[in-house]
Amino acid sequence: MPNPFLARETGFIRLCGHRGHNMTAPENTFAAFRAAHELGATSIEIDTVLTADRQIIVLHDLLVDRTSNGSGAAREMTAAEIAALDAGSWFDPRFAGEKIPTLAETIALAHELDLVLEVEIKEKVDLDAYYQALEAVVANPADRDRVMMISFDHASLKAVKARIPGLRTGGIAHERYSDPVAVARMSDLDELCIDLDVFDPADAAALHDAGIAIRCHAYKPSAWEEARRAGLGWDENLAAWLKGGLIDTLSGDDIGWLKNFVDSALK
Fold it and tell me: pLDDT tens across 166-219, in order?
């Protein structure tokens, strides 16, 4: 079976919605995931933490306050209590009643929409319980194949991969490494998630030669306008890297903008 995270095996570059399409829908909700899919996303980056009853939910923060009508730490609430919260009205009244989904529910939606998921581990308190819960959620190989677990904490990724055979992992990198292949191999990573600002084509070629996938994060359109005014050359560089097959997944906040960019670059 082809690796769904490598463009050379799938034949296309994935577009990844950062927390879904968070420009037009509340982040990390089904509304944002469906909006991203409608705009052309084939991948979604989500964030996950653990509840009091050891269920994995899709939430960026450790507290529910910012993105729901609730208050308090997710780890002190049950999954049922969190499911009862309104996670949409804070963004726009049109999304009233939108829920904070579980990881299991989100994987089911990924099957429905034929998406893959980049699942960031945001849990900070009880990683062992998180790993145990994750093991149950991705027990089905068909579910596991749609998931790339990602984190800034590469040691935790190595630990969870050792615990769950066949699980793919991706390390997030906001700075360049002197030897990115060695870093990836040290933590047994399948992917490096590299910010556009520190993307290096020679590093990318070396990673691909080692069989390691690359997700490049390309920010919001407003950041691009600042980069253009500063003369950073992102437009030309990214177009060249896409044409050169150096990127497997391009992620960002505005999927429509990313799709137009990729379509234009690959003409």
Answer: 999 999 998 999 999 999 999 999 999 999 999 999 999 999 999 999 999 998
Q: How far apart are CA 14 and CA 42, in angstroms?
A: 6
Q: Which of 58, 73, 6 is nearest to 28 (CA)?
A: 58
Name the phi and psi angles at 84, rounded to 5: -85, -10
**DSSP letter, residue 103:** H
Catalytic residue among 21, 37, 60, 154: 60
Say how far apart CA 39 and CA 164 lie, in whole Å.
33
Q: Which residues of the chain have pLDDT under 70?
A: 1
Three-state secondary structure of 40-60: CCCEEEEEEEECCCCCEEECC
119: CB partners within 8 A, 6+ apart: 46, 48, 103, 147, 148, 149, 150
| 18 labelled catalytic | yes
The pairing of beta strand 191-195 with beta strand 213-217: parallel
**Cα 150–chain centre separation:** 7
pTM equals 0.96
> What letter would DSSP give residue 93?
G
Helices (H), 61-190: 79-83, 103-113, 127-137, 141-144, 154-163, 180-186
| Under 8 Å between Cβ of 77 and 84 | no
Give the whole-angstrom CA distance, residue 151 versus residue 192: 10
Q: For the segment 88-103, what is each residue's pLDDT rounded down to a tens digit? A: 999 999 999 999 999 9
Q: Is 174 in the active site?
A: no
Cα 30 from chain centroid? 15
Cα of 191 vs its chain's centroid, Å: 12
